[in-house]
């Protein structure tokens, strides 16, 4: 009973997903970068073409799920405020579109992929990003989850087909075929698990399902998104550092925070009901810490280049 009271009081003043996102950003800026990236290296230096494609697809998938969940938070206002819903829908799609274009252009500019392979992230995004919107737009969350799984399975089928040629070219016929078939098998198991989980996850009669939803959407999803966007932020900045002057740092960082999703997604999370002023304060503090830490990191990169 005491735990329920504490939980209810906490939820009255704080949105868990926003708080987790903000804390993760600060931890990423201060601690995680040094833990995950080897000493003396940057994120850009540890990426290869395969890991770059995986990173981009992970960003597409989890950001689309977040946007879908934000759409669901506005869904109770469909009948009374249809104009608001239309505006929200436009903003969500615009955010996804800008992120999609910015990441692919960044990938092209950094030459992480050969020019002939640049179609892979473009095609993946076309299928993976709508999955979150399918999830969010369905009145029945379980059906929405299954629809999203179908869309992602189509994308995965294309990815297996495309990656087969890539792995064969890189590693030879035997190894390439083995890697592709192994990946397809793992994906099949994950898809079956996701479909099974969707039935349990959205069973309104199950108390455990409520806890699981909180863990997945309130904790894991914002943690993953903050980390992957934070690292892509670093990738994009590192690619620009060589041509930067001291006076370029602030405008470049701000534009990068905007184009690669950290600020827009945080604003959308704050705007989605219910609004909590505590989260706004924590969010501003978190973004401030992240900004100054990133600026300091860029200054060290510029000094190292020179």
What labels describe this entry?
single chain; about 300 residues; mainly alpha; 12 helices; about 85% helix; about 0% strand; globular
Please report the distance between the alpha carbons of the first and last residues.
61 Å
Number of domains: 1
Shape: globular
Average pLDDT level: 76
Q: Structural class of the helices, strands and pairings?
A: mainly alpha
Number of helices: 12
Q: Could you spell the SSE succession in H and E letters? A: HHHHHHHHHHHH
Give the low-confidence spans.
none
- Sheet-strand content, in percent, reads under 5%
Number of strands: 0
The radius of gyration computed from the alpha-carbon positions, rounded to a whole number of angstroms, is 20 Å
Residues in helices, as a percent range: over 70%
The largest sheet is: none
Oligomerization category of the chains in this entry: single chain
Concise account of the structure shown:
This protein has 306 residues and is mainly α. It contains twelve helices and no strands. 84% of the residues lie in helices and 0% in strands.
Care to describe what's here?
The chain is mainly alpha-helical. It has one domain (14-305). Helix content is 84%, strand content 0%. It contains twelve helices and no strands. The longest helix is centred in the C-terminal third of the chain and has 35 residues, at 207-241. The protein is globular and about 60 Å long.
Secondary structure layout plus pairing:
Elements: H1 2-13, H2 16-36, H3 43-46, H4 49-74, H5 82-110, H6 119-137, H7 141-171, H8 173-201, H9 207-241, H10 249-259, H11 262-271, H12 277-305
Helix pairs in contact: 2-9, 2-12, 4-5, 4-6, 4-9, 6-7, 7-8, 9-12, 10-12
């Amino acid at each position: 009973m005491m735990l329920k009271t504490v939980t209810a009081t906490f939820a009255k003043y704080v949105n868990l997903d926003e708080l987790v996102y903000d804390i993760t950003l600060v931890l990423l800026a201060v601690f995680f970068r040094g833990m995950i990236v080897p000493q003396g290296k940057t994120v850009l230096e540890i990426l290869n073409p395969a890991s770059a494609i995986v990173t981009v697809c992970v960003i597409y998938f989890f950001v689309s799920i977040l946007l879908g969940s934000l759409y669901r938070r506005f869904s109770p206002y469909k009948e009374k405020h249809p104009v608001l819903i239309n505006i929200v829908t436009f903003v969500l799609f615009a955010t996804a579109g800008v992120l999609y274009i910015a990441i692919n252009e960044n990938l092209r500019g950094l030459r992480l992929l050969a020019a002939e392979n640049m179609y892979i992230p473009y095609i993946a995004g076309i299928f993976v990003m709508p999955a979150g919107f399918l999830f969010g737009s369905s009145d029945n969350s379980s059906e929405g989850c299954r629809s999203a799984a179908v869309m992602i399975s189509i994308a995965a089928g294309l990815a297996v087909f495309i990656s087969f040629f890539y792995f064969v070219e890189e590693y030879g016929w035997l190894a390439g075929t083995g890697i592709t078939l192994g990946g397809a098998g793992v994906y099949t198991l994950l898809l079956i698990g996701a479909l099974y989980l969707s039935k349990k996850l959205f069973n309104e009669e199950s108390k455990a399902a409520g806890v699981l939803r909180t863990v997945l959407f309130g904790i894991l999803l914002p943690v993953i998104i903050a980390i992957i966007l934070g690292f892509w932020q670093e990738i994009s900045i590192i690619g620009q550092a060589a041509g930067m002057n001291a006076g370029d740092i602030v405008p470049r960082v701000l534009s990068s925070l905007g184009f690669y999703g950290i600020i827009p997604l945080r604003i959308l999370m704050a705007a989605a009901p219910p609004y909590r002023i505590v989260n706004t304060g924590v969010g501003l503090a978190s973004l401030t810490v992240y900004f100054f830490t990133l600026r300091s990191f860029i200054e060290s990169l510029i000094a190292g280049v020179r």
